[in-house]
Fold each of these.
Amino acid sequence: QLQLQESGPGLVKPSETLSLTCTVSGDSIRRRTYYWAWIRQPPGKGLEWIGSMYYSGHTYYNPSLDSRVTMSLDMSETQFSLKLSSVTAADTAVYYCARTPNFFRGEYWGQGTLVTVSS
Amino acid sequence: NFMLTQPHSVSESPGKTVTISCTRSSGSIASNYVQWYQQRPGSAPTTVIYEDNQRPSGVPDRFSGSIDSASNSASLTVSGLKTEDEADYYCQSYENNVWVFGGGTKLTVL
């Protein structure tokens, strides 16, 4: 059964880089069928797509975050990562990773991890 | 890119039917598939409708989706409301390799 689990620091200082990893069990991120995505949700607010990545490593980012976002596939077949630079309090959110069966929709989501930006 | 506008909240009684709208600000609603996600408090979103009107396995047929070109909007209809349907619902579409989410609708079943 497919499972996704986000992990990383729960607290990041302003101006630093937020780094998260999504560990996938029950599937390979190198499978040619799927995309892998990051979505976030500030406390009490709605969902925001951060970006998506194909198995080849090709990436698509939200234009509003493009200059600060890097997504990558790990050499293992079970992890992919997110880096968001120069964070501010506005980046405080629950961050979800997801598998998408094609580019345009989510299918399986992780449980999410709260990242707080504060000094 | 376009925006998707949803009502902030809707409420209805158990057993009744409710419809949540999602209006696209520019471009045709029919141009790109619309998805609907349900999010219960403290949980990750789950898909209840994908590709405008398709239900994932395990989602009851009380949930249905449609699009209306005249109003340039998508709709999620939940019939035979149950208290367990109380949640936030988000529509989502895409264009030019960018996902767009609606702001979400809180469904209260009272």
Amino acid sequence: DQQVKQNSPSLSVQEGRISILNCDYTNSMFDYFLWYKKYPAEGPTFLISISSIKDKNEDGRFTVFLNKSAKHLSLHIVPSQPGDSAVYFCAASRFNNAGNMLTFGGGTRLMVKP
Amino acid sequence: ETGVTQSPTHLIKTRGQQVTLRCSSQSGHNTVSWYQQALGQGPQFIFQYYREEENGRGNFPPRFSGLQFPNYSSELNVNALELDDSALYLCASSPGTGSYTFGSGTRLTVV
């Protein structure tokens, strides 16, 4: 039972254009969502997050949109740069007093072509 | 530079053996989680420790166990290794704010 899904295993984008990575979830109890980026031989690096009380969060070139009714979130990267080429993971959690446990999607490999 | 360090980086074990993976978290991070990432998949939650007590567990059998120590270090122990245990094992720590800092992982190969 995969509660977080990233249906696109890969995405190729030209440098300077927008990259849009999508994520769907099924558990309506999730209230916090995160995006991580992973380079080979490194651990996931936190990019940006959003609480379920918001529908948009922006940090520089990165914007995350949350559509709770559709149980869908997306990460927009604009403009895309070759250094953005990596695997991107969407993660969701339900925060409790002892901390939150992350449920990850399967990842999307982004390739930004110069 | 990541504040979470894991050792060893790579490990090869024989089926049936036991293995201990280690993680050193950032100071002040009282929550540590362990994840298993199989090739081509996202990380899967194994368990979480908060102030040295296990406070959450994913769908992993009891032969996966852990410890968290007062100095913010932790261990993942796996007994009776199986071929399917071959994966990247990730340690992640948090001060309880909701986001985690991950280590670079230990690549375990079971032969």
